[in-house]
Amino acid sequence: MKMESHIQTSIELLDMFLATPMPFDVLMSKFFYERKWIGSSDRRAIAEFVYDVFRAFWSVRCYMNELENATARLHILIYLTKVKMLPINQLNKIFNGAKYAPQSLTANELEYLKQLDNKHEMPLWARCNFPEWMLPRLKDIFVDNIEQEMQALNSKAPLCLRINTLKADKKKVVSLLSNYSVKNSHYISDCISIDDVRLARNHEILKSGMAEIQDEGSQIIACLCDAKPGDNVVDFCAGAGGKTLALAASMQNQGRIIALDKHTKRLEHAKIRLRRAGVSNTFCNEITSKWIKRHKHWADIVLVDAPCSGTGVWRRNPDMRARFSEKDLEELTVLQAEILQRASSLVKPNGRLVYATCSVLREENETQVERFLANNPRFYRQNISLVGVDNTEFYRGEYLRLTPAQHNTDGFFAAVLIAKSE
Fold it and tell me: Nearest to residue 153, comparing CAs of 217, 224, 213, 211?
């Protein structure tokens, strides 16, 4: 496919995204599945282009002002003009009306693009590509470093891998990645990364379960649980089982892990991953009130990886910033509080409750934990101290806060809460 075809397909994809609440990765998979004639290299080029458009989503919206006709075509036209700085003559070559190419530019579009205001300075929220309503919340967290932090969240993330010690060691995995530039982690001995590279899902290390794609921040959250062989562990919002897999490896397949989720389809996917990884100490269950009641004070460790805004993973999922609203945030914080309260009943005396999100917003993090502690005197907060692979401390604080700018991980938050002895 030529560039013109990539642009036209991207317009179609973005149009669908703007018209449906479906997550972009799900929508894109469905879109390409229904268009099998689009080859893998073209799919990759189209996906990368649309993700780059999302990385400039609010910058483009700032140029649009309150324009009602905010179509995908206009969005991409502004992106190409103001972000990629393509001159009109190059736009005319792309928007040429040929088969599979976008329709030719209209006189109104040409006039609109010529009149885009270049004279005023773009506001901070548009320059750093986040919705304007988040500005006071992000300033509250990042203060004077907001621009640096948000630009890092707007960058492309490295490909991180967790070596599955149930099946392989680092030496073996690295030898199978000899064609790649592999970097070791400063934080976790079983974590490696590959910059700006895609690893095929059918690569030997993934297909065999010797390694899993998992951001280093997510791996640090699993380490924070401090799960040992023989422990009883609950992964309360297990999803597809990424952190469950890491917990199983740290427990050397000994003890018991219960992976809980309300979405049984996610658990079915988790079961496939668990089998591939050689995990034998994990059981998957749907979250029900009956199950929770039967397992009161059963677990040594409960991990609550709560559903959240995903603001910390914007560099991997840049589309998430495009339509997240204050109403969404309000609904999530209510849900998070309910989940944390339900999960806490599973923790035995002297047990550990780890609350985590991939959000950078205080309402989902510190505020949530402080409210929980005020209403649950059975728990107290434990300070966090983390030591890296060189045996030096790389983090200390009341809570864990990781960001791309400071740690080159996704944005993660975690709190460790200890149940008092009875």
Answer: 217
What DSSP line would sit under 248-301, residue for residue? HHHTTT-SEEEEEES-HHHHHHHHHHHHHTT--SEEEEE--HHHHHHTTT-EEE
Mean residue pLDDT across the chain: 93
For the entire predicted model, the pTM comes to 0.94
Q: Report the distance separating Cα 221 and Cα 312, nearest Å.
A: 14
In angstroms, rounded to a whole number, what is the distance separating the alpha carbons of residues 378 and 311? 31
pLDDT tens-digit map of 306-360: 999 999 999 999 999 998 999 999 999 999 999 999 999 999 999 999 999 999 9
| Residues contacting residue 195 through CB under 8 Å, at least 6 positions apart | 158, 159, 181, 183
The terminus-to-terminus CA distance of the chain in angstroms comes to: 67
**pLDDT tens profile 278-317:** 999 999 999 999 999 999 999 999 999 999 999 999 999 9
State both tokens at 367. 């505020």
Beta partners for 387?
393
Phi/psi of residue 116, each to 5°? -60, 135
